[in-house]
């Protein structure tokens, strides 16, 4: 049984960040992974940085827009180690120099949404600032793991975390307090890490393993380096119901919660072929288990979500737009109503029987955009001939992707509002639609 998150939940969690610029449950006895879906994998190696002159447009001369932008990163702004040249042009168009802060700042409300889960938000914000030559704050970055902050019912549980980078620091930053990593399990139970013959050992189990508290949930930030080790320990934890010291008499049903960030099967770097993503790792985990059994004064009217994958970026944006349409007349208008709703829901029981369940998706915080438009670019995972034409001809992309199994598949949600070649063309098209640009300064 799992509490399911989606790209919609990720955007809901950070809608206030976009408007201030300060900065459903599914139960099955078969294996299910809750997922926190955004999109992208960004490397941390050297980039060709974007640099602008301080003699460009002054930030005080720029007209305040009535729309905002959500950028996917990999496949839209960067491709592997390469900053796309169109991104340089795009950010020149949506930024200006602030003489008081002595830096270039974004003039259009902007949030960066990425499925990268190997870094802290502040680290990614600094990285984006260096790449683009424009100041980006932590509150403008939504990582794949960011929505885990709205799951306080898991924060006091003992969790097993998986991924790359500073996974313990990331988990602590999200609110988790009792954390164990895959590497720590390997140190405690070395004989269980036996897939790689070179790593096999006769070293007995560490005494620390005898005192390991039962693991209560699995948190997957992104694909690990050694898939075989992570897969083995995760399956061991699931079939032992979190008690690695014991041998299971039966496979527990339901199994422990598995919260997976990022369901993308593939991602694109500078090569000509897509690379396996975290979604591929989760497919392996599922199969193995089944075998066992910016400051804005006024609210925005429109958000534009710019991505390169119809089945995640576009589907998620259109799904959120559907949410805005359905919930528009039911918004909670003041803080008192919000607190009252949260307090009332916190006393309810979730569909899986857990107390303290808070359905954050049903809480609309204050002001929000009226609609979200999806924009597909052809510089990432899919090209026009490979994906969009398939939607047009068959109306069904489920044969080539694995995402969004938490929702009944709707072909219309995979169709973008706008289709453009690259991110610069996307910004130009959005400016034209909004009648916004140099002529309106």
Automatic annotation (TrEMBL):
InterPro entries: CDP-alcohol_PTase-I, HAD-like_sf, HAD-SF_hydro_IIA, HAD-SF_hydro_IIA_CECR5, HAD_sf. GO terms for cellular component: mitochondrion. Pfam families: Hydrolase_6. GO terms for biological process: glycerophospholipid biosynthetic process. It comes from the Eukaryota. NCBIfam families: CECR5, HAD-SF-IIA. This is Putative cat eye syndrome critical region protein 5-like. It comes from Stichopus japonicus.
